[in-house]
Each structure stands twice: as structure tokens, then as C-alpha cells.
């Protein structure tokens, strides 16, 4: 019983750093999200005046941004 408890405690101790490390990876910073929002707004999306056409206009603005990024990537290579 004590061996099982000690093994479980050791496993939990070793797993905690891995879990905390995984949480710090892959997220966007506030500045990155803000920059994306500004870029989409510059592509023509207006969050306050969209009404029922919100999904279509947002997707169109995102497509324009993606095309701009693809163009700049192809010119940069």
C-alpha cells in the first residue's frame, strides 16, 4: 500500500511540470490578438455595423488578409 502511494506521489510530482509547460505553449498574446483584429478591420470588417451579415463579411475580410499574407510570402521568397 505504501509503495503504491509513493509511486503515485512520484508520478504526480513528475507530471506537474509537464502539465504547466503545456499550458504556456500555443496561446496568443493580447498584442497578437489585437494586431489580428486591427488587420481584419483594415481589410474592411466593421464589428459594430455588421448586423445579420456578420459571418459572411468577417470571412471575406479574413480571406482578404490571408490573400495579402500569401502574396507577401510569395514576394518575400
Describe the overall structure:
This protein has three helices and no strands. The protein is mostly helical. The radius of gyration is 23 Å and the shape is elongated. The model has no long low-confidence stretch (mean pLDDT 80).
Structural class: mainly alpha
> Which blocks of ≥5 consecutive residues have pLDDT under 50?
none
In this structure, how is the largest beta sheet organized? Answer: none
The arrangement of helices and strands along the chain is: HHH
**What is the tally of beta strands?**
0
Arithmetic mean pLDDT: 80
Helix percentage: over 70%
- Taken as a percent bin, the fraction of beta residues is under 5%
Question: Looking at the structure, what is the overall shape?
Answer: elongated
| Cα Rg | 23 Å
Q: What is the CA-CA span between the terminal residues?
A: 62 Å
- The DSSP helix count reads 3
Amino acid at each position: 500500500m505504501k509503495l503504491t502511494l509513493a509511486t503515485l506521489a512520484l508520478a504526480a510530482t513528475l507530471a506537474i511540470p509537464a502539465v504547466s509547460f503545456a499550458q504556456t505553449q500555443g496561446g496568443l498574446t493580447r498584442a497578437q490578438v489585437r494586431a489580428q483584429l486591427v488587420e481584419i478591420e483594415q481589410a474592411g470588417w466593421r464589428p459594430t455595423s455588421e448586423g445579420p451579415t456578420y459571418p459572411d463579411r468577417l470571412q471575406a475580410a479574413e480571406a482578404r488578409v490571408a490573400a495579402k499574407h500569401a502574396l507577401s510570402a510569395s514576394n518575400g521568397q
